[in-house]
Amino acid sequence: MKIERIGVAGAGTMGAGIAQLACLGRFETYLHDPDAEALEAGTERLRAALAKGADRGRWTPEEAEAASARLLAASRLDDLGGCDLVIEAAPEDLEIKRALFEALAAACGPEAALATNTSSLSVTAIAAEVDRPERVCGMHFFNPPVLMKLVEIVAGEETVDTVADAVADVAGRMGRTSVRAADEIGFIANRCVRPFSLEALRTLGDRITTTEQIDAIVRRGGGFRMGPFELMDLVGVDVGFEVAKSFWEQSFHEPRWQPSPIQAKMVAAGRLGRKSGRGYYDYRDGPHRPDDPDATAPPPANVREWAGDESIDLAPATQVEVLERIVCQLVNEACFTLGRKIADAADIDTAMRFGFNWPRGPLEWGDAIGADGVLSVLDRLRSETGEERYRAAPLLRRRAAAGRLLREDG
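and the corresponding structure tokens:
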């Protein structure tokens, strides 16, 4: 497929950002929204962002001007009729997306490729009412799309390779790094990130230590930019709780994805994170923590070799235990993802490094610790707690027995 003209359906923050990438990627770009005011605001925001980027040296003024000239505001859905690819950026509601795709299929004709920016809904379900559903695929950008380099290319049950390949090529021309994922719950990134918050919440619920100490351990020992509770506050505690419940329901109550009662209590108390002034931290009087002390060396890839941090008022062995629990659960979730052939090993690690700015991919971490080392942590936790959330992925157990690396495919 040759794609030169792109339509973006939805002129909100995400849609305008995707349209900006399309303009900069030298595509003739049509931005559509049924709300005239939203369309005007999105178009103005996009042009202002191009000018601001030129001022900051991200591209030249000439490139900004040329990109702006490639943008056309499309007030009617039919204006997208000549597009080779239309990317949907509508609210995350299955019925809304289904209705929009049915309308797009009629407006754009049988040859146009259609992509959904969904982060959590089934691509196959979205395409169900579309004529020729084989031309529908997922193209999941991360927010904000202009800053986040990752795009997940998701093949639905009927998506043909030519469409997925063409959409991946478009992502490359937009300057993004693409990974391929099967149409499973959470795709790659949102699936593999689950234990980051859920195991931190379980550790807090077990009263092993505090939110502040867990976050400090994860930052200083794991090299993460933010701890799990800081991240939950940034995203919104209520938003994170809804996502957790969605995974729990979609998976028919998979034990690994069980939401925490702590989340429910926080939401009931109105402690929703930064947006409400209080979450796991209090933001009403400025920054919630001082900067971390400078590290003399990066933390070891094998978290079991970390000796703890003297500035954290917690025994070094307990610090290592907290970090080990979280990282080993991240590795285990990645092994479930690899074992189910949702993505290959390289794409799993790439998705987590680019999608969430992790210092390492989870399978890279697993190989540094050793499959047998990860397995021993999980088996101990399962034996101590009796909980299925700690059951090891079959692939992890096989690789440990065979002495193989987790990053190997096959």
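(Above: one complete record from the training split.) The chain has two domains: 5-183, 191-402.
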